[in-house]
Amino acid sequence: MSELVIAAGTGALLIMASGAALQSTGTLIKQSEEKTTLRQNSINGLRLMRSEVERSMHLVLNKTESTSEDKNHINLSDSRYSSLLSECSALAGSSVFKPIFGVKMVELSKPVLYGVSLGSGGYSIERCGAPLDPDGKYKETEDLFLSRVIDHVGAIPCRQESELNEGESLSTVCEDNGSTLAQILTETNFTFTGGKTPSRSERQPALRIETDTNYKLVKFIDPTQSTEDSINQSFINKLGVGEKKITFQPLYFTAFARADKRINNFGDEGKGGSISGAFFQTITSNKVRFAVDGSGSMSACVMWGEGYGSWRLYFNPNQGWYYWNNRICALTRMEALISEMTMILNKLPIDTKIGITSFSSEGRENNKEWSESKDGLVRIGDKDKRNSAIAFVNTLDDSRANEWGGTYPWEAIQKAFDDTETDTLYIMSDGQPNKNRNGDDWSNSFDQDQSTADYYANENNNRNHDGEDRALIVNSTSLGLESRWLEMLSEKTQGYYNQINKETIQESS
């Protein structure tokens, strides 16, 4: 009898354990689905916001500096926008709508406003304006439409008492009876000063934006000014039971008003389609490597912001060396590249296999490869690979510019030819190589350009993968200069050559 009791008890424990395990597995599956859905929703929201910024003529915003009469069209406090602000506020009701910026389209009499509101998961980014039909056309004759663009926008966390400096106390908003999110949002300021909205404090939305002197740039920047915390990007953050994180994801975003000069033809995720940008155009391959210039010259500023701030090191393309400047730079070459790569990586279909290399001098900060693709191409749709690739790209401007290195693309190019699974290489550089592939000084002569292009083009002879011929197509981009050797290399490998400059970055068509 005792054996039967023990056996029955053991069986019951096993059934209970199995049930708990199934519940746990079910929870993990549900949370994984929620994480995927939230990530995709945020991508779709950023896609919409990017498309509207890029098809607009200019931004409309509030700023602390006085606005001249001829610039009143960019002043959100101007009387012409009063009714729009009132309607958006009324649509939000108790959820509050704090406008950050508007985008003025040529086809609309009123701008489309983007602001912060309260959603199901705390803060959210909302769009208020004329609705869009499925073809992307505005319905100005219909009522204004308030829609959620990104949910679960994170809040700046409260510090623990152990994290406080001497003489500091916990913020009143962090106390048990502290302010509600609605009260905090109502008191949060989104007015631009020196081209930036204010830095954020505890429990405020982790969202700070920068623009340029012409009010055409929208860039998410570090929401805090503290160098002691781990927050350096806007982010979404969904919490589960017991404040356990279901997902945490940085929000990388940079877009320029281009009056619809730039045309993108994106396929839905997983369904293919052509992806184009200023640096990399017509990306249709599903086995592709990116080789990007990580040299210090990529720190050259292409869009200046308002006012002055911290001293920063930049590259001067005219003088060929670095200089310190405390004028605010809204966008460098590297930041433009990072923005585009982030956009492309977010958009690539899930079955695309990629590799990413940043090339510079051996042993320098930006001579590195995305760790996931060191041993071969990686499927972007596999677990966490897309986020990992985006995180890698966003490290390219972490250190001081004079630590990035020079222009040495040879190892990255050779790796693409050696990896026969790769069928397309996209390479971008903003300068002539410091040395040729044999280690001698780059002479910039026609003979050297031709011999370099011929050497790599000949690597396609008898290049095959799994018994099938597979020549590598090299699509190249030069920024700020004419690169004859890149042009020749692309021509000899059936690729395209794309030469761009500062204006191309801002107004690419």
Global outline: globular
Q: What's the name of the CATH homologous superfamily of the largest domain?
A: von Willebrand factor, type A domain
Total helices: the number is: 9
How would you state the average pLDDT, rounded?
83
CATH topology of the largest domain: Rossmann fold
Number of domains: 2
Q: Kindly state the number of beta strands.
A: 21
Task: State the order of secondary-structure elements, H for helix, E for strand.
Answer: HEHEEEEHEEEEEEEEHEEEHHEHEEEHEH
Give the biggest sheet.
Answer: 7 strands, mixed
Q: Whole-number radius of gyration?
A: 26 Å
- Coarse structural class: alpha+beta
CATH class call of the largest domain: Alpha Beta
Q: CA-to-CA gap between the ends?
A: 84 Å
- Proportion in β-strands: 15-25%
Give the % helix.
25-40%
The CATH architecture category of the largest domain equals 3-Layer(aba) Sandwich
pLDDT below 50 for ≥5 consecutive residues: which ranges? 1-31, 260-274
Describe the fold and architecture:
The chain is of the alpha+beta class and 509 residues long. The chain folds into 2 domains: 35-158 and 178-256, no CATH class; 287-507, Rossmann fold. 26% of the residues lie in helices and 25% in strands. It has 9 helices and 21 strands. It has helices at 2-54, 82-92, 181-187, 333-347, 385-393, 410-418, 446-457, 484-492, 502-507; strands at residues 58-60, 97-104, 112-119, 122-129, 145-153, 208-210, 217-221, 235-239, 245-250, 254-256, 287-293, 301-316, 321-332, 353-359, 368-369, 378-379, 424-429, 464-465, 468-469, 473-479, 497-500. Strands 11, 14, 15, 16, 17, 20 and 21 form a 7-stranded mixed β-sheet that branches. A hairpin with a 2-residue loop joins strand 18 (464-465) and strand 19. The chain starts with a helix and ends with a helix. Mean pLDDT is 83; it is low at 1-31 and 260-274.
